[in-house]
Amino acid sequence: MKITDIRTFLMQAGRPSPSHWAADGRSDDAAMAQGKLGGFRNWLFVKVYTDAGIVGIGECSGWPRVIETAVQDLKGLLIGEDPTHIERLWQKMQIAMMGHGLLGTVGAGAMTGIDVALWDIKGKALGVPVWNLLGGKMRDRIPIYSHANTAEMAVAVAGRGIRMIKCGGVADPVRKVATLREAVGDEVDIAIDLHGPPWLTPADAARVARALEPYNLLWVEDPIAPDNIDGYKRIRDAAHVPLAAGERMATIFGERELIERELVDVIQPDTGRAGGLTQMKKIAAMAEAHHIMVAPHSGSLGPVAEYAALHLLAAIPNALILERLDDDWPGRARTVSPHPVQEGGSIAVPDAPGLGCDIDEDFVALHPSERNVAVPVAETDRSYAPGTHREHVYVQTRLRRAKYFTGG
């Protein structure tokens, strides 16, 4: 069996309303008024074709509009290769790109979509689900969590049988968590994502983490900028809360320090840009050796990456939970077939050969990419200190500190 072609399918995905997403950001009302989807979320799907008639599918994230070009550039390396030799082809792609420097999630995102498609081909060729190739099934259902930034949304999510919610943003995090805990009680787990912009300083993140201790969070996610690895130790030493990170890193080399230095309790590789299932299986094994759990990032991803995550979490011992916007843009369910069936707070592990899914190419074509970058927060979101939004700084010290750190 040989690879004969690789094709990409890029689409604009609609975004959930702000209350459905763990962030301070807002929806693009002006864009929606013009008949556009709004937001800047793109989904990039990849199909790998073979001379045996077997087609594999994968998904890339990490800046999909840019990555589409990278996938087409890698295509020439792979035509004529045996798609079942997945590890060798991963290494071939890696060394082919190394002359361009450390490409991070963009380079790994391109490899991810191709890599997952190769696993899909191999599963179909052998007549087994991908989880069987990854070591077999440890569990039949994968627990999920969803996003909620208001008490009303949290109650609604819990009412659907989901036993964990995540809120987010750096505007009033302590008050927000306190409100959600009061709304859902002690039977629902809560996490918070503190990602920027603006990112917290390590000193401020440590203060926030200490203030959140009474609420018994499942984790505090991305409390500081991803390039400040040493800052995690300062937070670790200051507060007794589980920490989670890793969605903005790629491959075992990008996740290594977080795991080996035991700076996090939960590692969150992104199923669309971590380097594919080839890398995510290795990341999970590294984490297992340090008693670190795996909860793949999936908040902005499309449905094919979600399928890949389901197969991974079915096969590894340290699977914790899968992120899922269970009330995402309605077009999500039309993008893939079959759409994963959620029952309460979990999803059944697919049993069809390969990943067990395909995309509706016609539906994808109806939603061409409009844009893939934007400033994610508005001045009214109060993420930045008053009067500083137009500075667009990366990291910012919190002001009005007495109120901010107490949730008053």
UniProtKB/TrEMBL annotation:
SMART domains, A to Z: MR_MLE
EC number, as in UniProt: 4.2.1.6
Database matches in InterPro entries: DgoD-like, Enolase-like_C_sf, Enolase-like_N, Enolase_C-like, Mandelate_racemase_C, Mandelate_racemase_N_dom
Listed Pfam families: MR_MLE_C, MR_MLE_N
UniProt entry tagged with the keyword Cytoplasm: no
GO molecular function, one term: galactonate dehydratase activity
Domain of life of the native organism: Bacteria
Keywords per UniProt: Lyase
Record carries keyword Lyase: yes
Residue ranges of domain Mandelate racemase/muconate lactonizing enzyme C-terminal in the record: 147-242
Top EC category: lyase
Protein name: Galactonate dehydratase
Organism, scientific name: Inquilinus ginsengisoli
